[in-house]
Amino acid sequence: AGRTDAGVSASGQVVCFDARAALQQSGDVSERLLSVNRRPTPLSKIVDALNACLPTDLQMTEVDIVPRSFDVVGDCRWKRYRYVLPSTQVDDNEQCQEAKRLFRIVASHAAR
């Protein structure tokens, strides 16, 4: 999975793990399954099962099967950064101007 620096929040993180997967055909309906404790489990049940074990501020939204060659970092197509600064009443002094300049440098670097 991607990572964040200490004290930084992230949303939309992708986690990748190895599991046995199968495609089960039942009539006209095919269902993708993961092996959980050697029992075939529908992907639709995995999200609920994982969320039951996770704290409420860390929740799964989706589970999918990807090719074995998938690389969670290398295959990332985009990242979005959102910087939130506390609004305070400060004098627009030289120190403030320097902080703004540094922030623009960090923000432009993160956007690359």
Strand order of the largest sheet: 1-2-3
Estimate the global geometry from the Cα principal axes. Answer: elongated
By oligomeric state, this entry counts as: single chain
Tally of DSSP β-strands: 3
Element string (H = helix, E = strand) = EEEHH
How large is the share of residues in beta strands? 15-25%
Give the biggest beta sheet.
3 strands, antiparallel
Distance between the termini: 19 Å
Mean pLDDT: 75
Radius of gyration: 21 Å
Structural class: alpha+beta
Keywords:
single chain; 112 residues; alpha+beta; 3-stranded antiparallel sheet
Structure description:
With 112 residues, the chain is of the alpha+beta class. It is 25% helix and 16% strand. The protein has helices at residues 43-53, 94-110; strands spanning 21-26, 29-36, 39-42. β2 (29-36) and β3 (39-42) form a beta hairpin. The radius of gyration is 21 Å and the shape is elongated.
Layout of secondary structure:
Layout (H helix, E strand, L loop, with lengths): L20 E6 L2 E8 L2 E4 H11 L40 H17 L2
Antiparallel strand pairs: 1-2, 2-3
Summarize the structure.
With 112 residues, the chain is an alpha+beta fold.
